[in-house]
Specification:
Elements lengths: L1 H13 L14 E9 L3 E2 L3 H11 L4 E4 L6 E2 L4 E8 H34 L3 E3 L9 H10 L13 E3 L1 H7 L2 H12 L5 E5 L2 H9 L4 E5 L3 H11 L4 E5 L7 H5 L5 E3 L2 H4 L6 E10 L1
Parallel strand pairs: 6-11, 7-8, 8-9, 9-10, 10-11
Antiparallel strand pairs: 1-5, 1-12, 2-4, 3-5
Helix pairs in contact: 1-2, 1-3, 2-3, 3-4, 7-8
């Protein structure tokens, strides 16, 4: 899937060629280049950048100076390139696009996960990822120190509001899923109020999601759950209110903000030397 994504991204950017570079340089021109951080960040996407340039030109020399998950300061060089000028320029934007998005996610994940650790709360992502980019988005989350929720619908059971509405209630939905899948998979149920929390408990749900509740409502729900199930907070959690939710004592907080609205980090590629053969 990642190979297909890289190829698609390169095709999208190159089209029928690079009309600018192709009319300035020849296959004989060579250059040195560096990718540098223009702000502090957790770097991510180094291996993807390597694969991008390898697809463009396997003869390019790719020298990483950092690895995914490293903290990088503004002005630091993260990798160097040596080879055909045309190849460097053809891969530049695609490699940077991947690295900038992934580094943004990794940086936010580190910040949020460190807040969670202070209170013993696990911070996890959601499926609110860029279409086609989920594996890379979730990899970047792990590089920043947060954890992954389910990768896809097939990974684990999560009975959400629409399942409950269509099945006729939490108890009926849990009963049907438990009869179908057996005793080994955990069952998570989404709840929006105390009555639903109580119904999920009586249905012996393993994980109870407290969806779009305020910190005060979460605190009340946790008293009802009383450690009988894993309590996961989800919905409406962001950088500004994360600590308030952590203070409630929830076990897990899932944040769509880790992937759906994190700003990319700023990296740039610069030619540092050239030679014409």
């Amino acid at each position: 899937m990642i190979d297909k994504l890289i190829i698609l991204a390169l095709e999208e950017d190159l089209g029928l060629g690079d009309i600018t570079s192709d009319n300035i340089f020849t296959e004989n021109d060579e250059a040195l280049a560096e990718i540098t951080a223009k702000e502090d960040m957790v770097i991510c996407g180094m291996n993807i950048a390597r694969d991008v340039f390898n697809y463009v030109d396997p003869s390019l020399k790719f020298t990483p100076l950092k690895k995914d998950g490293d903290t990088v300061k503004k002005g630091e060089t993260v990798l160097k390139l040596d080879g055909k000028t045309l190849s460097i320029l053809r891969g530049e934007r695609t490699a940077l696009n991947f690295m900038q998005r992934m580094s943004g996610i990794a940086t936010a994940s580190k910040e949020f996960s460190e807040t969670g650790k202070k209170y013993g709360v696990m911070i996890v992502d959601t499926r609110k990822s860029l279409p086609g980019m989920r594996k890379l988005d979730k990899y970047a989350v792990r590089c920043g120190g947060a954890k992954n929720h389910r990768m896809s619908l097939s990974d684990s059971v999560l009975i959400k509001d629409n399942h409950i509405a269509a099945a006729g209630g939490i108890a009926k939905a849990v009963e049907k899923i438990r009869a179908a899948i057996g005793h080994t998979p955990k069952i998570e149920v989404e709840t929006t109020n105390i009555d639903e929390v109580k119904e999920a408990l009586s249905s012996k749900a393993d994980i109870i999601m407290l969806d779009n509740m305020t910190p005060a409502q979460v605190t009340q729900a946790l008293k009802v759950i009383n450690k009988a199930a894993i309590a996961e907070v989800s919905g409406g959690v962001n950088k500004n209110n994360l600590e308030d939710y952590c203070k409630t004592g929830a076990d897990v907080i899932s944040m769509g903000a880790l992937t759906h609205s994190v700003p990319s980090k700023d990296l740039s590629l610069k030619i540092t030397g050239y030679k014409e053969i």
